Amino acid sequence: MSTNDDNFLRTGRRDFIKKAGLATLGLVIGIDSFAKIRNISGQNGTEDNFEINPFILIGIDNTITIINPRNDMGQGTIHSVPAMIAEELEVSLTQIKVIQSDGQSKYGAQTSGNSSSIRRLWLPLRKAGAATKEMLIKAAARRWNVSESECYARGARVFKKGSDASLPYGELAEEASKLEVPTDPVLKNPADFNIIGKDIKRAEIPPRTTGKAIYGMDIDVAGMVYASILHSPMIFGKIVAIEEGDALKIPGVLQVVKCERKMIHRDAESIAVIATNWWAAFKGRNALKVQWDNSNLSEALDTDDYFKRCYAQVKVEGINHHETGDFNRKFNTATSRLECTYETPFLSHAPIEPENTTAHVKDDGSVEIWAPIQGPGETLPDVANYLGVPVEKIKIHTILMGGSFGRKAYIDFVKEACFLSRKLKVPVKVIWTREDDISQGPYRPGLLSHMQGFMEDGKITGFHHHIIGESILRQVFKGLPDDEADPWMGEELRDNTLYEFKTSRKVSWTNVKTEIPIMWWRSVNASNLAWGQECFFDELAHLAGKDPLVARLELLEDERFKKVLKTLAEKSDYHTMAAPGMGKGVAIFKAFGTICACCVVVSTNNGGVKIDKVVSVIDCGMYVSADTVRAQTEGNIVMGLSAAIKGGIVFKSGVCQQSNYNNYHVLRMNEMPAVEVFIIENGEAPGGVGEAGLPPVAPALGNAIFAACGIRLRNLPIDITTLIKG
Amino acid sequence: MNKYSITVNHKLYEVEAEPDVPLLWILRDYLGLKGTKFGCGIAACGACTVHLNSNPVRSCQLRISTLPASAKITTIEGIGADVPHPIQEAWIELQVPQCGYCQSGQIMSAVALLAKKPLPSDKDIDAALVGNLCRCGTYDRIRKAIHLAAENPK
Does A405 touch chain B (CB under 8 A)? Predict the structure, then answer.
């Protein structure tokens, strides 16, 4: 990898231009005022509470460099984020060079997460591109002594209308750089888009077919040593004694050092084996004999105990997040009502690339870090604080992630590399094993959804979702007082569940705490909450004697929801009678500004079911790449199915019972059903696509199983091979 | 430390290593061929798949000392080095990779499959690719891309 390119990010644009050997200043543009962005975004329904600084560099040598502030983990941001700038700048994607941002605050929010990259940057980045283009046109107009309306831009050149005259951007860059940044650049009409909304083959794909793409795992730094770290089997065990003799005898092993794992809610102790190559470090780590003090951990880290404490809260009134009408009064007197509890397990992200980081804490006090992380912007101040080094002294190389799904937004592994390099004074590459990844967490939290509902005159008119369990906001972000309902989960349901329950709707919350580390997992709480909501709706529909899809349409007034469901019915051939032994199930959920509905088709198969087909319909508003929307939705179907039918994470007496892909299973090729994805085309503000396809998958499957064999499943994961007992 | 000579992508390498070092780490840390990936270390994910005499194998399980001197290893760097392999072309045509981390292994398994079965059935694909995990969920496109490559051989 070329680290020189990143100097731009470290030293600022003027230094970069000097270092790049450019004779004079080119044009650098960013959106330099939050207020300007705000004015536009307010009218368009997106929220942007960040500032964006230099994102576009046009060199006088005609190089066009665009900064990508959202690191790629397979969701396609390395293409789709620069594409928004390129569209308005009137340059083709083959004319630009993309550089990944390094966490410095001038690049604003830089976390790939919350499915936010397109929806949050949609207007600010397009505006940055449009403003730059206007300045280049103005510079050309002055050169030709014509009005700006006599000029237009295309393909990184400004043309003079009605003549052969044209100038490349690079030739205009110096003059343009002296102009005022227009405060209100005109954005293109979507009908004129050449890049946004078009299926353009992505430039990052070919190197991902030849082994040439560089992941964090592939970083090589001169003089580096490797570390394999033994974490406590009970995560928070304290070291009592270490026998390191056998480890030190292994050829290549250099040293055994105590290490620390900084987790957000609690620190953990560990022991690192340092070696000249990773295999030796790994063997050394396995040769360590460590005595741990595991006091109080066998109770604290136990999923059975956690769920028992959750179930104990089912009959206890929670803290209300929101309520219309008086749910309890109506429920208690309703003649047609239902009550049941749904369970979702803890899950590991298990990206195929295990956690890794290379760090160099140097003698001169500066720090260099190469890390596959979701959030360089949050990592930089966090690491600076941890090391006691000013942010200006730290250079983060934000490296492509080999999958993440939320895991690499949690940077315990980055700090381990920093800790070890500070101690050893050389570059250290930390590579976790798969066992570290799966048995050390953090995890998606397991939750209960205790559901209550009632009907009046054959219509579902009362719906109560009582969420019980641990909160990411509380444990990870320390932002939830004991007497408050989790606002993330509460708002998720308040704002996104659009069924019109006429008499009462209520969402309540009971916090059951755990020390098991938790974190965002693809689609966050929506992956838990959709299971209870959409299966329970199905149960109520059956109780009312109605088709579950028709019952949903009856209670939906939102036109976009209705269109998604009707499209799903059509595309999945939903209303055609299923053959005997087959079943179709549907679910719909909105998350991250995007509505996704899913139809799963199953057939009974030797006492279980086989998943034959999954059809998803997604309304994400406007998008940059249709193919990426389809790819992300396909990926969400696969991950949603893994979450539904493969084992969850179980802690027993302090120890995680899963350790690798041989006992933490994910879907494989031979289990892959046929999939079809359909996108609703409209001009609505963009929604997120990286996660929204996941929540409806599991409930659609649960509902399909009920349709096929009359078995109502309320606890995930489901073993679909043995559904029918005896 | 012992000395071993191995042939990788038609090139002969001499390496000095402990006898139990897996081929995966020889390739990555000794030869600098980083296209072959570490995913699980127990042959459960397939990210480290390479060809040993044209057969797909999990390089995390092959100790350097157990490789015969005649062994011919092919890694992802040896696929399409001059002109892209039909599998790689199909992968690009259908935009198969998401994060791409598992794709070296997927492609090695797919290339080996096509070499043995030029027109594989879905069942053949299931059997050949069952050991290659993709957490991003690209299985459907992998299947379609293998069929596409089979229809467009070179």
Answer: yes
Identity of the residue in B29, B76, B99 whose CB atom sits nearest the CB atom of A210: B76
* Average pLDDT in chain B: 97
What pLDDT score was predicted for residue A45? Answer: 30
Q: Smallest Cα–Cα separation from A439: which of A354, A382, A548? A: A354
Pick out chain A residues at pLDDT < 70. Answer: 1-54, 725-726
Which pLDDT value is given to residue A245? 98
Query: What's the distance, Cα to Cα, between the start and end of chain B in Å?
Result: 44
Residue A478: per-residue pLDDT = 86
Using one digit for the tens of pLDDT, what is the confidence trace for A229-247?
999 999 999 999 999 999 9
Span A711-725, pLDDT tens digits: 999 999 999 998 875
Q: Which of residues 169-208 of A touch B (CB under 8 A)?
A: 201-202, 204-208
Measure the CA–CA gap between A561 and A534, rounded to whole angstroms.
14
Q: Write out chain B residues lying below 8 Å of A644, CB-based.
A: none
pLDDT given for residue A725 in this prediction = 58
Smallest CA–CA separation between B136 and chain A, in Å? 5
Q: How far is A26 from chain B (nearest CA, A)?
A: 34
User: What is the Cα Rg of chain A in Å?
Assistant: 27
* Residues of chain A contacting B84 with CB distance shorter than 8 Å: 209
Cis-peptide into A717, omega within 30 deg = yes
Closest to B131 measured CA to CA, from B73, B61, B66, B82: B61
Chain B residue at shortest CA distance from A625: B95
Question: Between chains, do A208 and B75 touch, taking CB under 8 Å as contact?
Answer: no
Strands B72-74, B2-8: parallel, antiparallel or unpaired by DSSP? parallel
SS3 for A305?
helix
What is the per-residue pLDDT for A58? Answer: 87
> How far apart are the C-alpha atoms of A313 and A469, rounded to whole Å?
9
Crossing angle of helices A376-387 and A412-424, in 10° steps, is: 40
SS (H, E, C) A541-578: HHHCCCCHHHHHHHHECCHHHHHHHHHHHHHCCCCCCC
Q: Let me know if A63 is exposed, middle or buried by CB neighbors in 10 A (0-12, 13-18, 19+).
A: middle
Which pLDDT tens digit goes with each residue over B45-60? Answer: 999 999 999 999 999 9
Question: What ipTM does the predicted assembly reach?
Answer: 0.98
Count of A-B CB contacts under 8 Å: 180
**Residues contacting residue A104 through CB under 8 Å, at least 6 positions apart:** A9, A10, A380, A391
Q: Which residues contact A189 (CB under 8 A, 6 or more apart)?
A: none
Q: What is the C-alpha to C-alpha distance for residues B42 and A192, in angstroms, rounded to an integer?
A: 52
Looking at the partner chain, which of A210, A636, A638 has a beta carbon nearest the beta carbon of B80?
A: A210
CA angle A674, A675, A679 (to 5 degrees): 160
